[in-house]
């Protein structure tokens, strides 16, 4: 099921429901493209038709931001489960390690994907990482050939948004991959280079507050949330 917020589709799923669907798609040789959406991205998409088309063209638009849940409630929707990109990545990796499915890490600075791989193998020793490649390789055909040779079931792409989503959109038909997820800076987190907010802040959807306390310069960016919610109220479901 999906809802529409300011013209942008948002999937109404849980970690468990999306996990079950994605692994079934692998068995059915069906491709799935996951995009994370938050208030900032929805606002940009509402003003940029090409970005809106890119997001709405994905198979799953996960609500990665507590503001999306609030917006759903304001317009009478039923999205109550926040699904963060990094946590979904971890859920898929854990399940892949259990089911002997192969994953590939593409993107990030040189060495980051490899470091993330090593940390994740410590956590999930049975995980099959069929390949890694940094985001600085220029030859797109080389990238495609390398990924296809590795034959992964899941491809995590960390090129920053919306570049990573554009790359997936443009290349998914050339790749023998079932699940595609753009994961932003997640490789850095798994590699240990970036520290996530403590569990208390994550549990209540307050990562934004933690980041604001650590980095006060983010205040201007955080003020976008009230503007987003006001626009939802005044614009309605369009």
Automatic annotation (TrEMBL):
HAMAP family: TagA_TarA. This is N-acetylglucosaminyldiphosphoundecaprenol N-acetyl-beta-D-mannosaminyltransferase. Catalyzes the conversion of GlcNAc-PP-undecaprenol into ManNAc-GlcNAc-PP-undecaprenol, the first committed lipid intermediate in the de novo synthesis of teichoic acid. It comes from Radiobacillus deserti. CDD domains: Glyco_transf_WecG_TagA. Belongs to the glycosyltransferase 26 family. TagA/TarA subfamily. Its EC number is 2.4.1.187. GO terms for biological process: cell wall organization; teichoic acid biosynthetic process. Pathway: Cell wall biogenesis; teichoic acid biosynthesis. Keywords: Cell wall biogenesis/degradation, Glycosyltransferase, Teichoic acid biosynthesis, Transferase. One of its GO terms (molecular function) is N-acetylglucosaminyldiphosphoundecaprenol N-acetyl-beta-D-mannosaminyltransferase activity. InterPro entries: TagA_TarA, WecG_TagA_CpsF. The keyword Lipid biosynthesis does not apply. It catalyses: UDP-N-acetyl-alpha-D-mannosamine + N-acetyl-alpha-D-glucosaminyl-di-trans,octa-cis-undecaprenyl diphosphate = N-acetyl-beta-D-mannosaminyl-(1->4)-N-acetyl-alpha-D-glucosaminyl di-trans,octa-cis-undecaprenyl diphosphate + UDP + H(+). The lineage of its organism: Bacteria, Bacillati, Bacillota, Bacilli, Bacillales.
């Amino acid at each position: 099921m999906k809802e529409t917020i300011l013209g942008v589709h948002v999937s109404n799923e849980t970690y468990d429901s999306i996990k079950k669907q994605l692994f079934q798609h692998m068995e059915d040789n069906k491709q799935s493209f996951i995009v994370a959406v938050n208030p900032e991205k929805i606002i940009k998409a509402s003003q940029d038709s090409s970005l809106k088309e890119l997001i709405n063209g994905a198979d799953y638009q996960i609500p990665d931001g507590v503001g999306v849940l609030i917006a759903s409630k304001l317009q009478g929707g039923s999205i109550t489960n926040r699904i963060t990109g990094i946590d979904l990545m971890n859920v898929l990796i854990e399940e892949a390690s259990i089911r002997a499915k192969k994953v590939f890490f593409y993107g990030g600075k040189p060495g980051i994907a490899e470091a993330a791989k090593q940390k994740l193998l410590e956590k999930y020793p049975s995980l099959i990482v069929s390949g890694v490649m940094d985001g600085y390789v220029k030859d797109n055909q080389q990238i495609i050939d390398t990924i296809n040779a590795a034959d992964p079931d899941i491809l995590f792409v960390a090129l920053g948004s919306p570049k990573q989503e554009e790359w997936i959109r443009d290349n998914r038909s050339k790749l023998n991959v079932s699940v595609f997820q753009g994961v932003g800076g997640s490789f850095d987190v798994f590699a240990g280079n970036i520290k996530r907010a403590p569990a208390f802040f994550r549990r209540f959807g307050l990562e934004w507050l933690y980041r604001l306390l650590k980095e006060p310069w983010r205040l201007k960016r955080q003020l976008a949330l009230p503007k987003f919610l006001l626009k939802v109220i005044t614009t309605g479901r369009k």
